[in-house]
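#struct-help
A.M.: can someone run this one for me? Single chain, 265 residues.
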Amino acid sequence: MARIAFIGGGRMAGAMLSRLVGSGWCRGEDVVVSDVDRRKLEDLAAEYGVAVTTDNREAAAGSQTLVLAVKPQQLDGVLEEIAGVLHPGQLIVSIAMGKSTRHIEGRLPEGLPVVRVMPNNPAMAGAAVSVISPGRHAREEDLERVKEIFGLLGEVYQVDEAYQDAAMAVSGCGPAYFYLVAEALADAGVKLGLDRELALRLVAGTMLGAAQMLRLYDYGPSRLKDMVASPGGSTIMALEALEEGGLRAAFFKAVEAAYRRAKEV
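D.P.: on it. Structure tokens below:
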């Protein structure tokens, strides 16, 4: 029996495999991955030594922990396909956006533990933020297993499932917001004559440093911002321009749009 199986071999499954196998949490032979894309499976097998199959039922039947790493639109079809081969005590972990544990439990045999997780894109660099919520039948040992797995990818926070979609709109989608800001800052630097590679390095280093300040000092972002913005200086003039451009309102609207979309899904 595989220690862990994945239905779906996309980027997030690959990021998880990199950390799970690379850290020694499991060996490649302890893992099975199912996907419709044979080329993707070949690549995962070559890189991590995992077993691969195009048969979702085969992957689901022979695992202790099953990770549903498919798109939300594909989830119901997968659940219908595998429900008959799941076994008591098997832990089901879903990373499908917007699909509640009750939704999943209602399509599986009664009593199976389900834990919903929303990791984010920096999992590929071992710097993820993952938000987890247990279903009705998940036990403490199930939560500990999920925290152990996703802890290898970065930070893990447990929240009431009522807040999963809100957390997704902030941290799940959040990397894209920062990539957009990084691109805009770098472009602005290029406009002023900076080399693009240097501009990107300055932006990345500045973002990383600002994040570290938020972590290390319990001042909150407002006070940290004020530490940079001296009276009559360049920073306060720049902040005024951002306010005039509606930056705060744009972020409110962006997060609300992401939240609404998760509810629609």
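A.M.: thanks! The chain is about 55% helix and 15% strand.
D.P.: also worth noting: The chain has a mean pLDDT of 96.
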